[in-house]
Amino acid sequence: MKGQGEGIVENKHTEVNLTRDRLRELASLLRSALWLDMLTEAEVEGQVWGDPDFDPELQLGVEVDGGLVGALGGVVRQDRGTGTSVGYVKFVAVSPTYQRQGVGTSLLKRFEALLAARGVDTVRVSGSAPCYLWPGVDVCYTGAYCFFLKNGYTRYADAVNLRVDLATAPLDTEDDERFLASQGIVVRRMEPDDAEAVGNWIARAFGDNWRWETMASLRRSPPAVFIAIQPSAAAEERVVGFAAYAGNRRNWFGPMGTDPRVRKLGIGRTLLRLCLRDLREQGYLEAQISWAGPVPFYARTVNARMDRVFYLMHRSLKDGNT
Ligand SMILES: CC(C)(COP(=O)(O)OP(=O)(O)OC[C@H]1O[C@@H](n2cnc3c(N)ncnc32)[C@H](O)[C@@H]1OP(=O)(O)O)[C@@H](O)C(=O)NCCC(=O)NCCS
């Protein structure tokens, strides 16, 4: 009789594709399953329909009685290092009342089968930069870690976010700005007119992914990017630093970079603090420094502390076991 019962539950599930008219329902589902991340509709919209490699076939849902109970958003990107295509699970979530009934597994298997049919060999559950919600599986979502392990995924790297308490972090920039001005360096908010010069410089110095993220930040109101300029330099050497936030997540900081020729002058510290001050003025109590690289730099300059920990996981589809 057990088998019969299972069959009835399965028959109620209908596979659908996530269409934009379901944005509100999708955001609400994600909030119900992802208690650490109260995702807004704008964040979800940007992540799904704003992805540079958006593919409607890879946005999967499961319905019961017309209501969305499970969702998986995915994307395929070219890995520049190897030239191969890699599939990314950007999010997977099942409504708490429907968890542990096979909904998550059916979504994942459907996604893997679509990837295999396109000749994609690798699936990652890790930051699908430049457009990503998390660097990997947050260890606090322990059920998700167990879920991916059970489905044959292994952890290949870790990442951390840092947390900045915006009420107490030192965010004053006056002295630094005065010193930088004495060195012929101006810091200011980026404007839409800067897009070409700044974007080209970021792409040259740090790669296309950071350019994409920075342009997403530039579209926020006010533009969520600060830049450092050396007005006296030759045109292509004029931009010497940038820092951005809210490209992917509303109170997440990053990326940032300073030209190696003018490091150690306080440019990064100033740009970081200007961004965090914006967030404080917008009413946020904390900022997350996303997928943090130089932890000591952030710890020193804004009292950042290690916070969220992510496992980056992957699985090969070459065994054909999808
Ligand atoms: C991860 C998630 C999508 C799995 O969906 P699901 O429909 O419950 O998964 P399935 O029923 O297909 O598979 C269940 C298997 O996953 C693992 N699992 C799921 N939840 C678990 C939990 N709370 N504790 C331990 N293992 C868990 C187990 O291996 C389980 O198998 P079992 O029931 O035989 O022990 C769901 O738990 C969820 O929505 N979690 C919150 C969202 C999230 O963390 N997403 C990851 C960020 S991308």
Task: Walk me through the structure.
This protein is α+β, with helices and mostly antiparallel strands and 322 residues long. The protein has two domains: 7-159 and 309-316, Aminopeptidase (3-Layer(aba) Sandwich); 168-284, Aminopeptidase. The chain is built from ten helices and 13 strands. Strands 1, 2, 3, 4, 5, 6, 7, 8, 9, 10, 11, 12 and 13 form a 13-stranded mixed beta sheet that branches. Helix 7 runs antiparallel to helix 8. It is elongated and about 70 Å long. Residues 33-34, 91-94, 99-105, 137, 141, 143-144, 146-147, 150 line the site of coenzyme A.
Please describe the topology of this protein.
Elements: H1 2-12, E1 13-17, H2 23-33, H3 41-48, E2 59-64, E3 67-78, E4 85-94, H4 103-117, E5 122-125, E6 137-138, H5 142-150, E7 154-165, H6 174-182, E8 186-189, H7 195-206, H8 208-218, E9 225-229, E10 239-245, E11 252-258, H9 267-281, E12 286-289, H10 295-302, E13 305-316
Parallel strand pairs: 4-5, 11-12
Antiparallel strand pairs: 1-2, 2-3, 3-4, 5-13, 6-13, 7-12, 7-13, 8-9, 9-10, 10-11
Bound molecules: coenzyme A.
Helix content: 25-40%
Number of helices: 10
Mean pLDDT: 94
Are there runs of 5+ residues with pLDDT below 50, and where? 1-9
What compounds are bound to the protein?
coenzyme A
Secondary-structure-based class equals: alpha+beta
**Would you identify the CATH H-level superfamily of the largest domain?**
Gcn5-related N-acetyltransferase (GNAT)
The span between the termini is: 28 Å
